[in-house]
Amino acid sequence: MNLRPRSSVHASWSPDAARGARRARRLVLAGVAGALLAGLTLAIADRSDRGAVDPIETRIARDDSTQYWRATRMPSAVERSPGLSPFGDTKVEGFRGPATRPGLVGTSIGWIDPKHPAAVESTLPPALRGHANGSLRLVQVGAEAYARLGAEAIETAIRTHGRILASLPERAYVVRAAGHAAQAALEQEPFVEATLPFHPGFKVDPNIGHTPLIQESRAKSATLKLEVYGWPSIDAPGRAALRAAVEQVAGRSAVGGEGDGQLLLVEGPVDMVARLAAIDEVAAVGEQPEWLLYNAEAPSVIMTGSYEETLGARPFHDLLLDGGGIDTNGDGLRNNDGNDTVPPQIVAITDNGISLDTPSFAQTMSAVSVAGVPIGPAHRKVHVIQNVIDSGTSCDSPLS
């Protein structure tokens, strides 16, 4: 194909000519874009007239969350009291981010080098260190042996000396040896690169005693609410042994269970953490999370008849009709003390007592009442307690 121009006449190039050409192109493109936008605007306006597309004002009003955040206040957390960490004053970063170099093993206290057991022990308080001949061992397999033999063959060989409880990055296993002789034989296997005790500190969440809490009384309490997990591989007899050992440390009354018994809920002082972590059947110890409870589904069911079919819609609440009155004096409160012309609705409750320190009745997330707001007309929920046979706290009695 001949790509030469038909005419032998060539225009000379100059900067002014180039700028003029660019201006012309911009004008043409701007005109085309303007025409397209005008046509699109007309099309949208036409569809809006027919109700196919909501006007922009409607969409903004529908998706705006201003009213929600005016009525909703997120709770603030309370810092923990000193001395609640099982690691003491030692700063433990935990298992965060990738390893800084190959060959490290990930544990709850971070990446460690099992080839230097003395250095690992120095990072742990004495109470969180295991015995040199303890039955729980951390075994790291050599990279070359792992690549040559494969995981299946190596794990089969390890099981001749004990039980594999877990695998850890990188190329490491937690093994419960079948005895001292089995432990010695395991350490002599040619594929083993390093081994050391699986210290109780490897099981402990370093955030225990550090995480701020909404409930002030719990944040300041010396009694920790703990979760104790058993190894995933333990069977029913193992879970029974787990509970028996935990109850021996904490006391039967301080231990509860979840599900099949692999997760136990325990309450006790900080020095109990090390003793719980030293139990062979225990895989991990952490704090019970704090739950901020909402009765999320019932309002939607009452207002619409279904939570699932309406995706949790609350049309009355969207219109601020929630029984809480209207803040007519602009002080940010909706009280029944005469300052608001539209007071909250009052619902009478007849019971044998009341638990004031629950989300349903407390003034705040962490206090039954606050300074200047006792039980009475200014209280968020409880306006009066009419005692019948006691002080009104029979529902909170120990035998209730």
The total strand number stands at 10
Task: Name the beta content range.
Answer: 5-15%
One letter per element, helices H and strands E, the order comes to HHHEEHEHHEEHEHEHEEHEHH
Strand order of the largest sheet: 4-5-3-6
Radius of gyration, in angstroms, nearest whole number: 34 Å
Which regions are unreliable across 5 or more consecutive residues at pLDDT < 50? Answer: 1-19, 21-50
Largest sheet: 4 strands, antiparallel
The overall pLDDT, averaged over residues, is 80
The level of helicity is 25-40%
The assigned structural class equals alpha+beta
Q: First CA to last CA: what distance?
A: 99 Å
Shape: elongated
Highlighted features:
single chain, 400 residues, alpha+beta, four-stranded antiparallel β-sheet, 10 strands, disordered N terminus
Question: Could you provide a short overview of the structure?
Answer:
By secondary structure, the protein is an alpha+beta fold. It is 29% helix and 14% strand. The strands form three sheets. The protein has a four-stranded antiparallel β-sheet with strand order 4-5-3-6.
